[in-house]
Amino acid sequence: MSMAHKNNLSTRPKVIAELGPGNSLGIGLAALISGAERYYAFDIARFATNEQNMEKFDILVELFRSHENIPGEDKFPRVKPYLDSYEFPHHIYDDAYLNEMLNPERIDRIRTSLANINSDDSFIKYEVPWDSRSIIKKNP
After folding, report:
1. How many domains does the chain divide into?
2. From its phi and psi, is residue 20 left (phi > 0), alpha (psi between -120 and 50) or beta?
3. Which of the residues 40, 75, 115, 124 has the least number of beta carbons within 10 Å of its own beta carbon?
4. What is the pLDDT of residues 26-79, one digit of tens each?
C-alpha cells in the first residue's frame, strides 16, 4: 500500500510540483506517466538536461509497462522513508488504467512536452532560477 493510499490521500493527483528536482525531472515524469496532467519543477539552477530527461523518460515508460517493482532498501539503503512494500502498486494502477495512461498517443504528447518544456502547450514547467514568489501563478 502506498503512503498516499494509506493516509487517504489522492493516489492519482492531477498536478505535481517539485522543489529542487536536481539532475533530472524523473519524479515529475513518473507522475505524468502515471496520470498527472501537469508538472511544475522549481530549482535554483538548471541541473537537468533535456538529454538526461529523455533518457529517464524512456526508462520510466518501460518500467511502468513491465510493472517493475521499486528498488528497495537493499539497493538504496540511505533513501528514506522506507516503504511498507516495494512491489508495483497494482491496487492503484490496474491494467485498464495503465493501458489508458501508456497509450502511445499520450506518451508521445508527454515526450513532446518534454522536448518543449515551458512552451504554452507543454505539460511541464521548469522554473529556473526559482527565486521569486511571482513565478508561481494561481490556477494556471
Report:
1. 1
2. left
3. 75
4. 999 999 999 999 999 999 999 999 999 999 999 999 999 999 998 989 999 998
Angle between helices 50-65 and 26-33 (to 10 degrees): 40
Q: What is the pTM of this model?
A: 0.85
Residue 140 lies in a domain: no
Instruction: Please choose, from the candidates 3, 67, 76, 71, the residue with its C-alpha nearest in 3D space to the C-alpha of residue 34.
Output: 67
CA dist 62 and 74 (Å) reads 22
Residue-range definition of the domain harbouring residue 98? 3-134
Q: How far apart are CA 15 and CA 17, in angstroms?
A: 7
Question: 3 vs 16, 78, 124, CA distance in Å?
Answer: 16, 18, 25
